[in-house]
Give the backbone structure.
Amino acid sequence: AGNTATRNYNIKVDKDAPNLTAKTGTVEIIEGDSNVVSNYFNISYGISGGSISCTPSNTSSLAIGNQTLSCTATGGNGKKITATKSITVKANIPEPVSFAEDSWETIANAVKNNNTSKYKVGDTKEVTLTGDYAGTYTVRIANISTPSECSTEGFSQTACGFVVEFVDIITTHVMNSSDTNSGGWPGSEMYSFVNTDIYNVLPSDLKNVIINTYLVSGHGSGDSSNFTSTDKLYLLSTKEVWGKEGTSNTINNDSAEAETRQLDYYKNKGVTTDSYSGAVKTYQGSAKIWWLRAAYSYISYGFYPVNTSGGWNYNRAYNSYGVAPAFRIG
């Protein structure tokens, strides 16, 4: 009949992409933890709605270490936005049980978290070496404490924190075939031997947890100042074995004795320069002289060893004596 009608509509058009951002804050999870990855992101869509897709979709598949999560949000209008977030995946390390039974990873984790109540000074553990020194050896906890003096500037860290030493002698070696103490411990043939030959035959799981140790060692008559180095493995010094308090048979020619302390193990055993049977180490079943890192400051050719009865002495650097290193865990 020619009649017409008009109707008006208001139409909303979604022209924007979704809003997607990573949530703030550090995220640390344990290996194998199951968490929906999209929960680590803030997302809002326009009126057309949308969806989110993440790689991976769940954290349970992530390997140990620093990992990057990635999510992409797609709006109902087809527009997309991508955001990422970094998280840290930590190993699922069991609680400490005993020094003898625990893995080196468990021990190191316990030390880092000050969770060492299951470990005591003197506790032992077997270690299997390979190569030229293949065999099973025993190590022990030589120190756990960290007194305030360890925080003194220039103080050797060799008797601070969690220190482990070989109970007995691995092999024998000269300090210097040229019969000199010039250059001290870091300049000696023994230094290279311990931190290369011996270190290289340690099991990989142990090497992974040995920390660098700031070390102070004494000098001979041809040098004028003490030596510092940063070591994985090291030999002990005179004070670390015999201490200083209450001894009449005092060691006066270790120029670095003031920069370290007696290890907990030897202190607990009552080892002094007058009572020293607790410092004896054996090699192939018999007591044997073993080297310390301390140069004898009064002469140009001597270092201190521990003799077969556990007492102190000094001797020429070309002698081949026992090697029983120490190291720190952390």
Observations:
- The chain has a mean pLDDT of 96.
- Helices lie at 104-112, 189-200, 204-207, 238-242, 264-268.
